[in-house]
Amino acid sequence: ATTRPETILGDTAICINPNDDRFSHLKGKKAIVPLCNRVIPIIEDDYVDVEFGTGCLKVTPAHDENDKNLGDKHNLEVIDIFNDDASLNSFGLHYKGKDRFVVRKEISKELEEKGFLVKTENHLNKVGTSERTKAVIEPRLSDQWFLEMEDLVKPAIKAVLENDDIKLFPKKFEGTYRHWLENIRDWNISRQLRWGQQIPAYYYGDGKDEFVVAESKEEALELAQKKANKSTLKLEDLTQDTDVLDTWFSSWLWPMSVFDGIRNPENEEINYYYPTNDLVTGPDILFFWV
User: Fold this and answer.
1) What band does 2 get if pLDDT is binned at 50, 70 and 90?
2) Is the dihedral of CA 124, 125, 131, 137 positive or negative?
3) The whole model's pTM is what?
4) What is the largest CA-CA distance in the chain?
């Protein structure tokens, strides 16, 4: 139900609810993905709603957030079928190079012609779209930078909830603050934008792990030479990551940048203006920024 037909080519499992008697005969079996003939396992998980749709869930970890979580739990293969421009890549087989919406119609027709399509129904579906461009947002995996939060939240929790160094008004928002920080996840700090503070990571090879993080390109070169065990590496061999820090991370750096607090940490202006005594803001960004 509510399946985007083109993503069938990225399916890596079918999931049933272990308590669903209708499908007990399928436990431990395998299935074949139509058109690409990939053999995939039939897995069991309580996540599947017995009452929804057929009760059999196709799992596409590369193109749905919930499927990705399910895939991680069951160690499923992740198959990304899209290029950066939302056309299909080589996993799209004979649809390679075609736009996803074109493929959506064509693959539905092919599935019907080959007898794999049981029925088609109209659904009123909430589809994510870009606020600026109105383009349909496609769930897709990508490499991102994360900030490890486990140790970073400890002083933030103490300052508000234990030591009373920082007071929230009204006090009721301490509950929101506590819930956010005690259930914190690592912070995705990278964005694919054309402006902002660039991520200080430098690649010296083609592999995803062939990078170093440094304060300057010169320092990056030294680190890269050691890591790659290659003294012949030059500055021009390094490529800085094109990602930039997200808005909230940039906001955090802003006062330090304006008052030159990084290069000159004890200067008169930064000592006078920062940190501040009061911050007046909306509760909706309490956890993003404050």
Assistant:
1) low
2) negative
3) 0.67
4) 76
